[in-house]
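During the reporting period, our protein records have gained a structure token line. One record among many is quoted in full directly below:
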Amino acid sequence: MSKIASISRKDFLKKVTFLGVAGAGAGLLVQACSNGGDDTAADPCADLSGLSESDLQMREMLDYTSETPNPSERCDNCEFWSEDQFGPHCGGCTLFAGPVHPAGWCSSWVLEST
């Protein structure tokens, strides 16, 4: 027969509570260090938080994507591009609201006239 350590219910609850609090604290620390999966700090063009539902629908209707499927058709060489509207590496578009990746694309892309 093995010898089992005796522990009081009170001590057991203290240890379980401590482990739960420590685990929650560690989870918050990991989330803060990883930015919680929020890419907007690393990429200002990904911040759509200020857009209305209709703004988001317009972006979707125009098939906007942050990465062009055709390297010769990029937002930053489109007629509707608005340079540095949302920061030094993030423009805008005259057709829809919100930040736009320079290397993005939408179905309304038109080569910028020079």
User: Anything to note?
Assistant: Strands lie at 81-82, 92-93. The chain has a mean pLDDT of 82.
